[in-house]
Write a structure and sequence with these properties.
Length: 204
């Protein structure tokens, strides 16, 4: 279920409604009505950043400190370019499987919330599908609880796309963690590449 909220310039009202829908409601909110055509791209981005700051500190998306990250095809090819700095699936025209959003520079840390600003829709493709991480955990616990033992232990995750200087290119990160609170961290490609770098390729 996705909640739909109308855009409002009343920051206090918008903050409370967003917080309620994200943390006490369905957890996924679409805000409609930001006058992008009137504002123009730059002012729309400013309004978007101001909105995200209502929820808490905004984390940089890249090693250089860029706060807003553009998701679009920039001619990067994963098979050819993977492993270089800045090479992320969201910079290609490749299909992207289910994953938790957040930059690889933050591997080991899961943001409390993520947001997307749509300035222009694609001519084709680009559809997004959202799933409930808690629901997936509950289904696995009910149907295949034996899987949770492995999914709750760390996998090696590749961070080379956005790697701070002096830090390890791979980090051990579990898919599910329940302490001190429930967290999901999953991107199959980064796990596969991380396990390969560690000399421990996945067997399935």
């Amino acid at each position: 279920m996705i909640s739909i909220l109308p855009w409002t310039d009343d920051a206090s009202q918008l903050r409370e409604r967003l917080r309620h829908e994200i943390w006490a409601g369905p957890g996924c909110v679409v805000v409609r009505g930001l006058p992008i055509d009137d504002l123009g791209p730059d002012k729309a981005r400013t309004a978007y950043v101001a909105t995200t700051e209502l929820l808490g500190p905004v984390l940089p998306q890249t090693v250089s400190g860029v706060m807003m990250y553009s998701v679009r095809d920039e001619g990067i090819q994963l098979q050819r370019d993977y492993g270089q700095a800045g090479v992320r699936t969201s910079k290609t025209n490749a299909a992207f499987g289910f994953h938790t959003d957040s930059p690889s520079r933050l591997a080991g840390h899961t943001p409390d919330a993520i947001g997307l600003l749509v300035l222009q829709t694609a001519k084709s493709g680009g559809a997004s599908v959202f799933v409930d991480g808690c629901g997936i955990y509950d289904a696995i616990e009910k149907e295949r609880p034996d899987y949770l033992e492995r999914l709750s232990r760390p996998f090696w995750v590749d961070r080379r796309a956005e790697l701070p200087a002096g830090e390890d290119p791979i980090l051990p990160v579990p898919v599910f963690s329940t302490s001190p609170q429930f967290r999901v961290r999953y991107l199959r490609l980064y796990i596969e590449k991380g396990q390969e770098l560690a000399g421990e390729p996945l067997t399935v």
